[in-house]
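User: Could you walk me through two proteins back to back? I'd like the raw sequence and the structure tokens for each, with a short line separating them so I can tell where one ends and the next begins.

Assistant: Of course. Protein one, sequence then structure:
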Amino acid sequence: MFEDGSAAILVNELGRGAVITVPLSLAESSRLMPGLVRDVLDFALARHGLKRPFDIDGIDGDMDAVVASGDGRPAVAVANYGPGPVEIAIAALSLEPGRRYALIDLASGTRTARLGRQLSPWRAKVPGHGFVAFRVIPE
């Protein structure tokens, strides 16, 4: 809800789906209310029995992110189209406490093992005109 009492988002059921309306651009919404944007994505995914495998902070307008989790081994890739490096934070959202996981840098093959919640979040520097890609696997 906005300060003036008006709705920050509207959800209208339509057939077997829903139309979600946010009265700001995605850029404005992400900058001003990133939690709301995450909630909208979570709502849309939950309608299909899906969950986000990662939370990614620090992405700007010159970047793209791709996530996958279909095989139970979540992966994330972030591309930076800008000229300078950008530091991001990535949090895996579905780790079991106390379980060991390996974080694999898919570009270099580097592998580190950590316990559940100690793995997340981790920081990565995405080089200018470059990318980073990681996979989290249980050990």
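----
Protein two, same layout:
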Amino acid sequence: MVVVMKLTKELAHFIGFWKMRSIKEGIGVVGSSEAQQQFIVEALKLKLITPERVLLKEGVVLFHHIKYKNFFLNVVKNQNDIFARKNKLTAAYVKGMYDSEGLYEKGVLIIHKSTFQDQMLIERLGFYTQRKKGELGIINPRLFFEFLRKYE
């Protein structure tokens, strides 16, 4: 069976969410029960899996599908090319990253577990950042949130 996937706004959000909490085995996430639940709900809504394919392990939730995983890994690897412009796909991907590992508190927006590639992506979209120990601070969160709302 050949799997042909089109990168939609919903799938871009899912991949952005997954990439920040991904695990080595299958397609899964580690973290709180809320994050795990959001991951599974989105996977079911996107019809990536059926409920019986969901595997629960200590602290993680996952499913197996090598072609989906290869597609997702390719998107992440090429994120700076795929999401080079401000549009609905880019906003969805970045929002997925924020929904997964973002925190907005006292006027400061931080995305935990971010990489240098994530910083480059955000900066190429026109947002100033500061990176410290795997945390990416976005200097002007108001503009960042306006960008996300514009393409909802």
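The first strand starts at residue 27 and ends at 30.

Let me know if you want the two compared in more detail.
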